[in-house]
Amino acid sequence: xLKYSQTPGIFKLEGNRLGRPYHRLQTIFVSKFDxxxxxxxxxxxxxxxxxxxxxxxxxxxxxxxxTAELFTSEVGQLAFDIERPLxxxxxxxxxxxxxxxxxQSSEENELPTKTETRLKxxxxxxxxxxxxxxxxxxxxxxxxxxxxxxxxQWTYKITFMLDGAEGSRFSIFLDDAHTDFILNALRxxxxxxxxxxxxxxxxxxxxxxxxxxxxxxxxLTLTAKIAELSLSVAELTHIKPGDILPIALPERYSVNIGxxxxxxxxxxxxxxxxxxxxxxxxxSENSYE
Length: 289
Prior knowledge:
single chain, 289 residues, alpha+beta, Chemotaxis protein chec, Surface presentation of antigens (SPOA), 2 domains, four-stranded antiparallel beta sheet, 7 helices
């Protein structure tokens, strides 16, 4: 039997969490690893003149934190915290103050300066909005600072480890409401994946029905040529009212769609109206010899 410390990579599930798949919560972030890495890299490069790439994403349950910046969303409370070495590195890279960075690194136990606090607040707002975005993680939330809230115990902690020194990481803390919100999103995703083959078949059937409906409602014009007479220009100019023109009527009349013959029919009269009757299909006259 191995101790828990000897089994890295195995997610420890507390007894009070049984019945909820908390071990799957990190899946929604790990599955978007490349997208998050790209967006974080662009953000730090453009806004803070620092090249930072995402190394891995770690998760932990039931965490206590008193220094995180509190925020709220339409779901509940969440928080952001960043390691001070990374915060100082960002300040040094932005202002080009290597000497400042060395001095501050030796005084990490002192209270953060106002500049550090402002930068931390800005980072928290920007990164939370970036991560909880439909294009980044599929979780669209409206994030706002919570200056009056008090929260130190968190249900879930997501740590984003960055390439670089040991302290290059920041963390996001979630309360029960946000944890359930993400787990519900995972359940909905599973349902969609399970019903995807059925959805494909349903969409195909619907598409075929729409195409059939469009074809069935296409307007067509049928043309039946009753008579045809050839006259010269001279004969046409001499026609006067009351003249009688000799016309030879065929036994059957062809009914066309455009130039294509559809069928033939007899022409009958009833109550001063003409009707097509005795409809018969046409036979192809092509020779295949």
